[in-house]
């Protein structure tokens, strides 16, 4: 529902510049947008719950560490709330939340799990909540400059990993086939001069042959066609 | 030429001044349709007064248009005027450094006029000229050119050379790259020849594959001038800021000087500053002529003396009785640590001189930036080391008795008592295993006796321990790495008995295994043919077979007893090795952690370039109310943003990853496990591999004393800058730039 089979999106503002993006993001429709919103709310609330559990545990640890002195001010009459938009206010609100039924429930959960288990689990939860739903990989072709591959990272926290290959270094661009499990996949490779490894375009998604062929033709046209001195060759790869 | 596919490429700085005024676009023309814009010189004119000098910022359409119309005829003239001045180098006449360096790095003999901005008509201009249209409203300029059928507009951020920012195609190298194989390591590189052979074979395979791939390429495309221009363009981007400053400062030289003289208040300010500057210059000369050279000479002499002492120590540390024998620094961690510090000390003056030469050139020359990072990284690490060392040292010295007691306790508990307990446990049937009691008692008694002797030796030495601890604490004022290295050495000295037990038991175990193997062959009626290195059948006599079989049975039943003793000491030895590995890791962190690079990465990522990347921007112009829109025919334009990739954290720790990989490959390989199981000596990892990290920041060959003396004494001709920043005189009110003839630069 949230992802589709890899599909191709082409941006081509001028004939010599093109960006081919293969993405698993389906076309935007109203239900999908609503679903996205729901997912976002879910992510935020879940991470909030995880944070609150961690905070509750921290408060418990602190009170067991600091001893009875920490207990005294809380038992006395409630002090006036600190001014809005300050760090103290945040702490105040958190402490107020601790006394609500939901807060006590979270505190009980936090107390029941031992610390060496709680911390890795919390880290895993945060990582899982920051994972991207869809993948996006693109190839930017600039005549006279080169090609640039980029992959969207696994989480929302990191930036896209890009690799730029100048035209001088491009030895060839071709479509190759390889076995993957029990199927044959076609994939686009850039052969870089003076390097041992070829660069695979769209390495994570490995789209279908039709898309790969379209991209290959587009790249050829964008980079070389009409340059005058070399003919367009029919076969490659 | 290749260029006539109608693609025009324009590099355009993002921070260029956006205004509606006319101007001349100046930059580099890499080929006919490949231009690199540095700046726009606005209001360059031959005539003293023009209508568009109006200070009002609001772009009143009618007035600017009439101004444009009036200027059309002169614009052509003024562009040629600019071209003439660019060729004759007027702009760089007052620059502190020679402009030839610019031309050399940017690949042209002079800058070019690339076109005009905000021109009213396109009649009078050259067809290959760029017509740019900028306004304060639109984010991107609109480019058109008569010859171009499509346009790539590449926006770039100017790196700030004074802040040592720059871009580069390849990631910045934090380690020194000029490592050849050190001559001393040639002899020791043979022991892991098997790994090396495998690696070589794999490389050969890959090379063949790459060759094959080359044959698959059908068309060999010749790179056009535009393709080849990329390295040049990177340099031009790096130079762009300084060039822009020079051009904008000196733009006033093109026109006539303003007719108006200085006002009275300006004159008063000028004479007052002249007086102040005169006094300050006199004081400075007094200092720099009489006092400074003496101090400098004394400092250099002290430095030279230290360098000579360091040289003597280094010679002692690196002395080898024979090539291939171990030097002192190979045996002891302390010696190695001392050697690294001395080498660093020898390298610093050379580095410092290199860095000072940087000041004698344009700031945009980026070749010495990695040197700068390396130099300050090592300085910072040493300073950190000393600070931590002082804390540790004062603690150790204050509590030296307590520390000595602790160490004595630890030694007694773990290297004597635990070992004794373990041996006695093995002597009576351990874990229900029925070992051979007599052999176990013999071996156990042997080891226990040696342990007793050893512990008595330690006891006699123990009154010395506080003094040793005090010495270690004192040495830590030279850095926290020193006590760590010393503790590492102390550990290997105080566990010498475990090492010898391990060697002895391994030897016995290995012999027994070898005998068992050959007797097993005999048992089967075969034997190992040494000449052909194979198993041949052999007819044994009956008595030979009988004795052999009896011996085989005997040895086979004794094997478990020997094996448990061997395993006991092998495990103890492994624990010590891993402890020492921990110390080594700590040392390498203290010596070579890329702290400075990490801080730079946080503070200013563009100082650590890791390559470039491009971003395709959406092309939709805001509908501007400008009436001149229809004059520009719509050429398909793509807007691309050139960005710098900051060096990824992975690359900063590349050396560490490499070292971890090597260690893992060496110690977790099946060969080593086999050695451990069969009781053979586990070959230690090649020191060159292990300490490649330690030496990656130092040159392969250190500079000699004489070279240092020469380097320190050569005068660097740093251009005589104006000694003081002149006070800023307010800009003239007539809108134009003030001509800067009197050194009153830096607006």
Automatic annotation (TrEMBL), chain A:
Molecular function GO terms recorded: glycosyltransferase activity
Residue ranges occupied by any Phosphatidylinositol N-acetylglucosaminyltransferase subunit H conserved domain in the UniProt entry: 138-203
Pfam families: PIG-H
Keyword Transferase: yes
Membrane-spanning parts: 34-56, 105-129
Protein's pathway: Glycolipid biosynthesis; glycosylphosphatidylinositol-anchor biosynthesis
Keywords: Glycosyltransferase, Membrane, Transferase, Transmembrane, Transmembrane helix
Keyword Transmembrane: yes
Family: Belongs to the PIGH family.
PANTHER family according to UniProt: PHOSPHATIDYLINOSITOL N-ACETYLGLUCOSAMINYLTRANSFERASE SUBUNIT H
Protein name: Phosphatidylinositol N-acetylglucosaminyltransferase subunit gpi15
Lineage: Eukaryota, Fungi, Dikarya, Ascomycota, Pezizomycotina
TrEMBL record, chain B:
InterPro entries named among the record's database cross-references: PigQ/GPI1
Residue ranges that the Swiss-Prot or TrEMBL entry lists as coiled coil: 186-213
Transmembrane segments: 379-397, 439-456, 468-488, 545-569
Keyword tags: Coiled coil, Membrane, Transmembrane, Transmembrane helix
Pfam families reported in the protein's UniProt record: Gpi1 (PF05024)
UniProt region (Disordered), positions on chain: 722-747
Identification of the protein by name: N-acetylglucosaminyl-phosphatidylinositol biosynthetic protein gpi1
Source organism phylogeny: Eukaryota, Fungi, Dikarya, Ascomycota, Pezizomycotina
